[in-house]
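Quick question: what would this complex look like in 3D?
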Amino acid sequence: MNHYDASFLAIACALMTERPRRWWLAGAIPALAFALTLLPLGHFAAIVAALVACTPPLRPAAAALLLAAPRYPSVRAAAVSAGLYLCGVAVLAALLEDRLDQDAVPAFLRGTPARLLVLAVAYFSLLPVAHL
Amino acid sequence: MSAPVQFRDLVVELGFVTSAQLGDALARQDELNGSGVRSHLGHLLEDLGYLTPAQHRLVLVQLDMQRALAALPTVRRSARHGWVVAALAPVALLSSPLAILAAAAVVLVGAWLAQGRPGRWLALGWAASVLVPGAGAATAAAAGQGGASPRLRESVLVALIIAVSAAVPLLPIALSPGHLLLIAALLLALLRRRPR
Amino acid sequence: MRGPFLHSSQRTAAIMRQVLLALAPITVAAIWRHGAGAALLVLAALSAAVTVEAVLARASVSDGSAAVTGVLFALLLPAGAPLWLAALGGALAVGLGKHAFGGLGKNPFNPAALARVVLMGLLPVYFFAPAWRWDGVTQASPLSKAAGALLPSASALLAGDAPGALAQAAPWAVLLGGLVLLLLRSADWRIPLAYLAGVTLLVLVLPAGERMAGHAPWLVGNPLPHLLSGGTLLTAFFLLTDPVTAPFSPPGKLVFAGVAALVTVATRLYTPYPDGAALAVLTANACAPLIDRALVWRKLRRAG
């Protein structure tokens, strides 16, 4: 899983589940995961990142765990991932709440499928970010 | 769900103290509580010379294990848990035998360590998937086990997303999360269209 | 809070007729430059879009919105695209881009741009060909960062004498169509103006990306190829100005156009993608509700 896919899955998780009040805290995880890779921890760097991602204030945010999953090759990759997660959740949450009229959506697409469609479109739209 | 196991019951059940000794300690605890001093029953039993420090530690460990085991039936009893496992079965089939073993270990150890907390289940599953390369099923199973919590839908969704992402590299075609989201949306729509 | 929906079908039909009129010079220029192949592409996308509209919402076929979507999608296609891709895109634009979200006026994304981007994700080979057949020889688009890409002269760029999508066949025709739209007041002038100004400014300000080392030096600090190549002009006048997917307030529209300009230029300068216009449209569409929220919040804070 590359860092773009991980960020996007984290966005999907944050938007498809009950979003915790402090969802933005997960934005710090990529930086933490990158910092841990600088320490001589080997595989344990990933485990420590996963455990930190699940600390009590972040526990409901599975998004944090997804953000801890990839191996960030550089500070830039971690910053892009964090930025993508924070902006993605803010932008798409507003879009889903304000512009997606669930009553107008056909019955068979109403709710989760319509939200998934929006997320899929957003994934393809933001694909160039993966190359930044 | 049965009442949680108590320290006072376990210490007698294990034969470390008698009911009379326990009665003494409880009376002493009431006295201390009355004077505003909070004290732990185990320490009081130690102070009174009824329980050794080693026995005390053993009771505490045993207590934790008993409580973890008590949590297991709630996982099994959850009617919804069945379809969580069923949904994860194809992923398990795609994974290596080592990964499936890791998944089983996560389920067993996780019941003890994580109990009903989805976040901890995820951490455990993910740690397992890091230790056993390609153990996507372990992650998925762990997240799915979070189904024992009230947030079943969340756990299932997270489990499925992680499971499918973990399985994708094993498939002969290239699929990105974008494709998966589209496919998921269309599948859900098709399932809803099916006449009942 | 919901989108600014168009309720009057007569008003919708009138606007769509005006948009089709504005698209006519671009379509004619594309057919003139690329021949019958371009005509067939437009026809395939148009007929697929209208057919899907007829199946899903027979009553709204006559308002012309499906026809506009079909033509716009075709104009975003490479000249050598297969006919089935045009038909699939037209159908996807109307089926997925419009009706999956509740029909006209309720779509959060521009349907034509959505179909282009989704197909680009699903079938990248048809959109990322390393080079284009052009005047009997193989050439790279002026926006391409591939080795062998050449920058045509300014006059050639304006005349559309460079490989690219159908809409790129004649930038002057897109400008003409855009002016028609603005004169008929079918589009808000702020969006194209802010978008084109934003692209110009950002190209002048932003440094070259690592990926451009040794390739296409004309893309850095030179706004002309950015403005006249790729989907810039079509995006400015036809895709971003869709009132349903843009913010409500005039200042919001300026921010919206700025976001689109930033994504367009950043995609071209810092990623391997040759053109980010359609991606910019969808990204800006996604940002529109947040822009509205931010501006309303600012206004309320000032008021009270």
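Answer marked as accepted. Chain B touches chain C through four residues (CB under 8 Å).
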